[in-house]
Structure formats: C-alpha cells, structure tokens
Amino acid sequence: MTLGFRTKWGKPPRPTEFEEKILDGRKKHTLREDPKDRWKAGNSIQFVVGNRTKDRRQFATGECTATQSVYLYTEIDSGRIGIQVNGRTLNRQAIELFVLNDGFDSLVEFDNWFRPLIENAPGKLLIRKLIHWTNLRY
Asked: Considering the chain, what percentage of its residues have pLDDT values greater than 90?
C-alpha cells in the first residue's frame, strides 16, 4: 500500500524532510485517516513523494508492523494538544517523543500541522490510525 508524504509544508513552504527522516530512521510512524480499516500489520508499504502526480517517486519500501488507534484533541485546561493511543492518554514527555517519532522537529510544528485538523473535526476530536514500520509501540 502507498504512503505518500509531502516534501514541503507551511507558509512560506518549508521542507518537511520526511523522506530523509524515514530513510535515516528518525521518522518511525505516520498518522493517517483509515475509514475502511485497510491498514494492517503485514501490509507492504511503498513510501512515495509526489503521489498522484507526474512527479511521483517511490523512495523506499517497508512493511506495516502494527497499527494503533489515535485520538488528537485540545486539552480543556491547558489548550495544548492531547494524544490518546489505544485508549491510553500520553503524558507530556510521551507526547514530545511521539512528535519526534512522527518526524516533526518540535511540538510547535506538530501543533501547526494538526491543530487546524482538530478544530475542524467532528466534536473537535481527530481520529487517526498510527501506522508503524518499526517495532516501536505506545
């Protein structure tokens, strides 16, 4: 199955470095919508940039080693992003590690990427699937 990654993001556009981070092992998983529950352990992964364009390029292959259910939300008391993985609420230290393992350089970058999605999600609860290609789990 294909996992497409952006090469640039933000205003002004900045490099995501997701390709490099996947290849060197810093990016260990990705969050995706999966309404039809297609992602499963054992699925092959084709890592690509420029998906569905004439510039599509596969830069790696791998295998889905596991998936986990993730809820992203805004904490009422602090206004910070909260993360639940398979029903377990992550503490601040675990969230910071999660953010780095997802390929972001900081919690601010992660917040900038996901907060608009959270704000527009039904009930302001963003539901995603965490797709792993390493042995890391939360």
From this structure: 99
